[in-house]
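Researcher: Quick test of sequence recovery. Tokens follow.
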């Protein structure tokens, strides 16, 4: 049985374990294989990058308080963050990489920046 390229179907010449006739066919095949998961990951990463940029822009000093409306006006999406930190007193900060936020009363949020070691 003749082996054929997994991408274009052309007959393969050369090594017995060869799967593609050219690098372009290998790239096409792998791009097609990974396109669905790559699109989801890319979309989530875009949300995270945007949220991080907003927190960075609104918190130039490392600690500040802003109203929820200001975050929303800048396009902040509260559904995307990288991790949660709970203090000993029970306060729950949500972080987007090194920038975090803590909900306060009256739709205010404390923004903080954590040092990355």
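Model:
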């Amino acid at each position: 049985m003749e082996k054929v390229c997994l991408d274009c179907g052309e007959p393969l010449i050369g090594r017995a374990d060869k799967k593609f006739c050219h690098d372009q066919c290998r790239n096409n095949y792998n791009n097609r294989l990974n396109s669905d998961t790559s699109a989801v990951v890319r979309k989530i990463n875009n949300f995270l990058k945007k949220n991080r940029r907003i927190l960075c822009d609104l918190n130039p000093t490392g600690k500040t308080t802003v109203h929820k409306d200001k975050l929303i006006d800048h396009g902040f999406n509260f559904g995307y963050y990288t991790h949660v930190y709970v203090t000993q007193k029970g306060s729950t900060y949500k972080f987007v990489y090194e920038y975090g936020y803590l909900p306060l009363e009256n739709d205010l949020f404390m923004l903080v920046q954590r040092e990355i070691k």
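The longest helix spans residues 23-58.
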